[in-house]
Amino acid sequence: MDLETVTAEITQVLITKEQIETRIQELAKEIDAHYDSKDVLLVGVLKGAVMFMADLSRAVQSRVQMDWMAVSSYGSGTTSSGVVRILKDLDTDVLGKDVLIVEDIIDSGLTLSWLVANLEARGAASVEVVALLRKPDAAKVDVDVRWVGFDIPNEFVVGYGLDYNERYRTLPGVAVLSPSVYS
Ligand code: PRP
Fold it and tell me: Which of 71, 86, 107, 174 is the pocket-test mutation for ligand 1 (most atoms within 8 Å of CB)?
């Protein structure tokens, strides 16, 4: 699927495929410098982070392992409550490991805030976060995020892993969904 095929369903392309590729290379260099040849456990948050994880994990030179969590926030409709249920847990014991959470988007920050606390409580040696997108205007809690790809406006975005009703995840860039699709 490319962006041209859904022009009627989007109002604006916010970030192109090329911009994402360039930014991932920059993030990867900073991540490599930070971990300085230490082993890193990348924890991807399903499903939105799949594309970002696939590209970032191959851009870093650090020795990485990959694992995944799926979580669901209790709450009404699209509103995150901060109470999180684990749908799929890690296969890996994080005790003593340097963990890097790989997220697609930080909206309210509630999911991530819970996740960082959860992994720290399991005894990880360190827990850092890299998020491709962040909506500063939507933040309800402050989360210490070491690496952010792009700060974006508080709009409903899809593509590059992000969905609306499980659609649009395979778009190559990040685009604003037209309200006509969801209203
Ligand atoms: C999205 C996103 C984050 C979370 C961010 O996941 O991937 O995990 O919401 O929201 P918050 O900052 O307000 O807590 P979603 O529940 O849509 O699941 P998905 O990745 O499977 O689409």
Answer: 107
pLDDT higher than threshold 90 for residue 37 = no
Q: What is the pLDDT of residues 126-165, one digit of tens each?
A: 999 999 999 988 888 889 999 999 999 999 999 999 999 9
Distance CA 14, CA 113 (A): 26
* 32 catalytic per annotation: no
DSSP conformation class of 138 = G
Give all strands (DSSP E) within the chain, no chain letters.
Answer: 10-15, 40-46, 64-73, 84-88, 98-106, 126-134, 147-151, 157-158, 174-177
Question: CB-based contacts of 18: which residues, under 8 Å, 6+ apart?
Answer: none
Its pTM stands at 0.94
